[in-house]
Write a structure and sequence with these properties.
Layout (H helix, E strand, L loop, with lengths): L13 E5 L4 H6 L6 H12 L6 E5 L13 H18 L3 E5 L1 H10 L1 E2 L14 E5 L2 E8 L2 H10 L2 H27 L4
Parallel strand pairs: 1-2, 1-3, 3-6
Antiparallel strand pairs: 4-5, 5-6
Helix pairs in contact: 2-5, 3-4
The structure holds uracil (URA).
């Protein structure tokens, strides 16, 4: 794996895919080390998910001035993501924002992409890749979350935050129910 990924040494059931390294990530050499990472970490630790999560980005190099990666850049980095999914075979994939979802669509097929629900916590889609199918949960990117925090009135923000939190609970349900299955 590229050296900047978190959790690469273990086989972890949750694969979290962001967009691209920002300035802090570029300096540290790890994903989600800046303000977006603080948001992500707070939700992961609130649900005890941090030790079960492999965190990476769809694009492995920092686009200048943190612009959104181009389709070409996403395509160029796709082979890394393919290798990561093959090696990890996660139980659930979490996409943070649209670029991550676009990346999955470059390497495989998302079931009914129009039905992807960013707001509703109780919905997942499926991602078909090679001979496997992975549940995918689409969560707003933490940088969008931070923009909403500044923009929304307090009632609307409360609702947004409740839904955001519920998405992570939904992620947890995938690994919790697995532990209840009989061991084959
Ligand atoms: N945003 C991302 O999408 N990835 C990072 O690693 C940091 C910020």
């Amino acid at each position: 794996f590229p050296s900047h990924d978190i959790g690469s040494e273990k086989s972890l059931p949750i694969m979290i895919i962001g967009e691209a390294p920002g300035e802090t990530e570029d300096q540290v050499g790890m994903p989600f080390m800046g303000v977006s990472g603080k948001v992500l970490d707070s939700y992961l630790s609130a649900h005890d998910l941090q030790h079960f999560s492999y965190i990476t980005n769809i694009v492995k190099c920092r686009p200048e001035k943190n612009r959104t990666p181009t389709t070409e850049e996403i395509k160029n980095c796709a082979p890394y993501l393919e290798d990561q999914i093959r090696a990890l075979k996660p139980k659930v994939i979490v996409t943070l924002g649209k670029s991550a979802m676009a990346g999955l669509q470059v390497i495989g097929t998302i079931q009914d992409p129009k039905s992807i629900e960013w707001k509703k916590p109780d919905v997942h889609s499926n991602f078909y890749f090679e001979d496997s199918v992975y549940p995918v949960i689409a969560i707003y990117h933490p940088s969008y979350y931070l923009r909403q925090k500044n923009a929304l009135s307090s009632n609307t923000w409360d609702e947004f935050e409740t839904n955001y939190d519920a998405k992570f609970l939904k992620v947890k349900s995938y690994i919790s129910c697995l532990s209840e299955l009989p061991i084959a």
